[in-house]
Write a structure and sequence with these properties.
Elements (H helix, E strand, L loop, with lengths): L5 E6 L2 E6 L12 H15 L4 E6 L10 H5 L11 H24 L4 E5 L2 E3 L1 H7 L3 E5 L3 E3 L13 H8 L2 H10 L3 E2 H6 L5 E3 L2 H16 L3 H16 L2 H15 L2 H12 L19
Parallel strand pairs: 2-3, 3-4, 4-6, 5-7, 6-9
Antiparallel strand pairs: 1-2, 7-8
């Protein structure tokens, strides 16, 4: 299937979603908000990859929401009804936009993102929903919504405060300042920094390949546990992993891993099974 806002390829267990509007700084036009969750949900549902990599063509990863969405009334909401019922309808519109990035967090496989140049506004909402972030040395990050008179509403706040120290989350949010790649690494927003876009993508693909070589069930379980532990108490997390492994611990996979490694071979694992499409996808 072809997309307007990105190219999608799948090879050796790695799905590569590459934003392809470099002349527009990969800004997020209306079709982006339906295409991205469509692609990610299909990859997750069909288990057609073991890891997803997001990257972008051109100088910038993404400048966020395209200006046309603001200037052409895309955020005005319904034109009729009282301001209260219009506000209620707008809330649902906002939540649909949020779902476009929540799908990254809820995907059955890890999502890695390679960032060069700008990652501002809506791009911050996007990258905070990914599992791991990597950047070029010239990359910069900004919660830019504050500078244009609005409060970011598509996912930055609930996720950013769990990725970096609260003080930095507040400073970035209040000032809309640009945070460079080195500082972003220092505060934990990105995992690693690379000198060029080529080195960045090569390194991220190597990490993706390493992930794809592990048992899909174990990796999917690890993602589920990290997400759960982030949002629950230690006691709840311990209880959940015990319950998870009581039902899904694959002893056969563990045994075959040891045998293959002892013989210098690559372990072979069962792929995750496709699941039925859920209502609303």
């Amino acid at each position: 299937m072809s997309y307007e806002c990105f190219d999608l390829t799948v090879a050796e267990g790695i799905a590569h979603i590459r934003f392809n509007r470099p002349d527009k700084a990969n800004s997020m036009i209306p079709s982006f908000w339906s295409e991205l969750p469509e692609a990610v949900n299909a990859l997750s549902r069909d288990a057609s990859a073991r890891v997803i990599v997001l990257s972008a063509e051109g100088r910038h990863f993404s400048s966020g929401m395209d200006i046309s969405v603001f200037t052409e009334g895309g955020l005005d909401g319904p034109a009729s009804g009282s301001r209260f019922v219009r506000a209620e309808a707008f809330r649902h519109h906002c939540m649909e936009l949020q779902d476009a990035f929540t799908c990254l967090e809820e995907a059955r496989m890890p999502v890695l993102v390679a960032i060069q140049g700008a990652a501002v506004g809506g791009a911050m909402d996007l990258i905070t929903a990914c599992d791991c972030r990597y950047a070029t040395r010239d990359a910069f990050f900004s919660v830019h919504e504050t500078a244009i008179g609005m409060t970011a509403d598509v996912g930055t706040y609930p996720r950013l405060v769990k990725l970096i120290p609260e003080g930095w989350a507040r400073q970035m949010s209040y000032t809309a300042e640009r945070v460079g790649a080195e500082k972003a690494r220092d505060i934990g927003l990105v995992n690693e920094v690379y000198d060029s876009a080529e080195q960045l993508l090569e390194a991220v693909m190597a990490i993706a390949k390493q992930i794809a070589g592990h048992a899909p069930l174990a990796v999917s379980g690890a993602k589920r546990m990290v997400n759960y532990a982030r949002d629950h108490t230690t006691a709840d997390g311990l209880d959940y992993i015990a319950t998870w492994n009581a039902s899904m611990l694959d002893v056969g996979a563990i045994r075959s891993s040891y045998v293959a490694q002892a013989e210098g071979e690559t372990p072979q694992y069962d792929a995750l099974l496709p699941v039925k499409k859920t209502a609303g996808e």
